Records
---
Amino acid sequence: MSEAIHKIHYSALGKRASEPVITDLMHRALDNSELLSLAAGFTDNITLPVELIQSAVARLGQDYPQAEYLQYGTNRGRAGLLIEIAEWLNADRGEVQPAPFSPESVFVTNGSQQALYLAMQALCDPGDVILVQQPTYFVFLELLRGLGIEAVSMPVCEDGGIDLEALPGFLLELKTRHGAERIKAVYLNSYFCNPSSRSMSVAEKRAFGRALHSNGLVLPVLEDAAYRELWFGKPWPAPSVFSLPEYDVFPKLYLGTFTKPFATGLKIGYGVCSDEEWLGKMLSLKGHQDFGSAHFNQAILETVMASGEYRTHLERLRAHYAAKAEIMGSVLEASPLREMGWSWDTPEGGLYYWLKAPEGVDLSIGSDFCEQCVSSGVLYVPGDLCIAEGKPKYFARLSYGSLAKEKLEEATSRFCTVAHSR
Ligand SMILES: Cc1ncc(COP(=O)(O)O)c(C=O)c1O
């Protein structure tokens, strides 16, 4: 009998696929209940809208036996939800009128993560370049690596903004190195950025649009607004790039989600695309992947948005995260970290503190500091993961999202104790 040889020959994509670093951190937290995680960008279970969902489902149930919401929906998303999303984005946010977001440009996705993936699949081949901020959303960096795309950080100022003076020289050098046609898009995390919690001012957005234009780079702009609803004192005043004339000539993709501000597990996000052709290509790719996001979940969201309950839910949620940010901030401020040369800004929204240790301190995965934190029962996200070039290594992201208030205090103290002991 001949011996069968089973061997899997992977695609280039399959070969590049590797376990994200964060899953290791999350497994460690799940395997050890004593370990308190400030790492994962999870929401707080206590804020999840159980009653709102129950009542929305009960209202949907009144349509029985129609139950169209338990049938497949359309690839682009449920018509009523597309309208709700466009109306939501156009209202009260300083967007120019007439409304820049139209329901025809919206598409619903399996979290905004899927919209990011579709956008990159439609635009990029391996070896292409995406411009990102420093720091930026590290799961997006992993996504790019998986697709063989190179993320390149734009120059950054001391205050975390894009360094507009250094930008022309940087862009020129980049175009010479890669060829302008390989630079495919810019990714902006402009509202309470993950991980820095920094937002872009309207002046910075405008100046950046002008700088790209005058340097001959009119390319797709992705604006990721995953945390836009999670403001504490007041909404971030800058409108989206859809409203700014400097971006009129740019193809634009705005990304939003209901996972952070509403029901995480429904995993519904969306994109709004200003360019019909690009939108069509992303939709074709989505058609190949899943031909539509969970229709029932979309029906729930449509019901909650149409009733106005989403707005009231957000008010409660903002107060909750503002209080948690304050708890973490008080523990940090009461610690000797600032005297030791650490620094951070107090977030005005979002889920994260972004800490800068003195230069030379190594907070990366596997560093002594990181291991000491694990053995002291606390996890954080090493900041180098959030930087395309993987350095510097003296930043840390601490999330106040998921832990209950008492545990949050304890976890932050543990982190400060480790920092102080070194
Ligand atoms: C900046 C940013 N964008 C996009 C996402 C994707 O979120 P989701 O797929 O849950 O909508 C996240 C999730 O953490 C994020 O932090």
Note: Residues 110 and 293 are 6 Å apart (CA to CA).
---
Amino acid sequence: MCLSLEHVEESRKPRVVVVDDQPQILELLRYMLLYSGNDVFSFSTATAALEAVERNQPDIILMDINMPEMSGFQLCEKIKQKPGLKETPVIFLSGMNNPEDKVHGFRAGAVDYITKPFQLDEVQARVSTHIRLARAEAQLRHQNEQLEQTVLLRTTELRMDIEERERVEARLAVQIEATQEALNYTIYALARAAESNDEDTGNHILRVGEFSGLIAEQIGLDDKLVQAVRVQSILHDVGKIHTHPDIFKKTGPLTDDEFARMKEHTFAGTMIIGNNEKLTIGRSIALTHHEKWDGSGYPYGLAGEQIPVEGRVTAIADVYDALRSPRPYKAAFDHATTYGIITEGDGRTIPGHFDPTVLRAFREKSAQFEETYERLKG
Ligand SMILES: [Fe+2]
């Protein structure tokens, strides 16, 4: 049976192996070490000692250097190559007293070197010291291994926690996306329902959404706001469900009373959309998309940055699409004509109606406006 030093108790008698080809010295050491309370195993040849220590691991090995068939240096090196014996302390006992032999001994793996003739007390003191040291080191190694196992176990548990959290987050992301899609669909359905009262405007609401998104992105709004503007600007005219259909169908100019009723679609829109925090951008757009930068718009006559940015963005999108589309009171304009009216004015629409930053973004994104109109003209 091969005992591991890590698992022996300090109270067990130290197991000492002695190897020397001189019988008198072997006997002397055996008696002295037995007398000091050790279990002693003595061998006169290196080969016999090697076989024995492989079978039964000692706490320490004392060995002579000059021995027939195998020197102490060779025996020490062979012992140190055995995995179970690598940490077993070896002490050389030799009559050779020059420094080179001592260095050779330490290089072979010894922990100590005692020269002959020796004092028995000194030998016993060094043997005890090295056994205590080796046991302390073995204990330390054992604790380190336990610590490494604990760290490994905890790391595995943490990795499993992280993986579980990632799975939960992935499920949540899917649910959030599904909820957002459901909200977008509801917004679209609401906008479509409101359109049934208006003249046939085709994909007007979808195009205004796309145009507004283009401008919002171009002026550098953050991604979340760009997305909200793109989706919720389609609700800009949702209040028109309360406007009498005859007003939309009228080919001539509106009377003051008719225009006043038309303006009410802004307030009606805010009432329909309500106060849900997910629709605050849509509500703001419904209320302010007819305000003008120069203060000449409605319903409040707000000017400049008094108008929320989402209202300023949607205003230009709505005007562009209205100019491009046929209405009972006007024919459709092509892109170039519409571009000219918005950027240079035609008497009714003037550049001063628009936020200059938004107007610049329109000029920069003009080609995409044309492409989007063609794609969604339905
Ligand atoms: Fe409107």
Note: Residues 6 and 138 are 5 Å apart (CA to CA).
